[in-house]
Amino acid sequence: MKKIERIVFATGNKNKVREIEEILSDFEIPIVSMKEAGVDIEIVEDGKSFEENAMIKAKSVWDVTGGLVLSDDSGLVVDALNGEPGIYSARYMGEDTSYHIKNNNIIERLSGVPDEKRTARFVCAVAAVFPDGTQKTVTGIMEGRIGYEESGENGFGYDPIFILPKYEKSTAALSPEEKNAESHRGKALRAIRQEIEKYINR
């Protein structure tokens, strides 16, 4: 049985770290952000998929820290917009553009598009680089559609415009527990957790 002292998560996004800690709350291994691990590097995400970008981030941080490093790359894929914003979700309309502006831009671009053609999904790829250099990537998907206006006070990013059919509410209107049970990130993190447990126990 292998012992892992900590997990370094290759992100500086506080919302994301909080969500990860909630989803993995009963996991015994402490989770630290890049910043908490003392890593301050520029990472160029030039992959062509969520999976490639997640692994680029994980590998870049692992090169500095060793140990177990996780990273995710996630985004919104809107069918009627040919898959936009996709892997460019964080950089869509510029990195410093508020999500309120991004969300309303998507709503405007879908003006006149009926419900059945407003299909969209959140995709999350989580990459792991283990202490021995082994690499693993898993992907979680949450299917839904784009609403007609922002709604809900919880969540972040594109959550206020993403309607989850099971609840007929935006993911920003769900409780953290409801969202984490259904979310793309929750699915991917639970899958990578199984891979970590396999690694520890082998």
3D structure, described in words:
The chain has 202 residues and is an alpha/beta fold. It has one domain: Alpha-Beta Complex (Maf protein). It is 31% helix and 22% strand. It has helices at residues 14-23, 50-65, 99-109, 176-182, 184-201; strands at 7-9, 31-33, 68-78, 119-129, 135-146, 162-164, 169-170. It has a seven-stranded mixed beta sheet. Helix 4 crosses helix 5 (184-201). The longest helix has 18 residues, at 184-201.
Mean pLDDT, nearest integer? 93
The helix/strand series, from N terminus to C terminus, equals EHEHEHEEEEHH
Main beta sheet, described? 7 strands, mixed
The CA-CA distance between the termini, in Å, is 6 Å
Predict the CATH topology. Answer: Maf protein
Q: At the first level of CATH, what is the class?
A: Alpha Beta
**Physical arrangement of strands within the biggest beta sheet:** 2-1-3-4-5-6-7
Low-confidence stretches: none
Q: Assess the beta-strand content as a share of residues.
A: 15-25%
Alpha-carbon Rg, integer: 17 Å
Helix content: 25-40%
Structural domain tally? 1
CATH architecture: Alpha-Beta Complex
Based on helices, strands and strand pairing, what is the structural class? alpha/beta
- Overall strand count: 7
Helix run count? 5
Envelope shape: globular
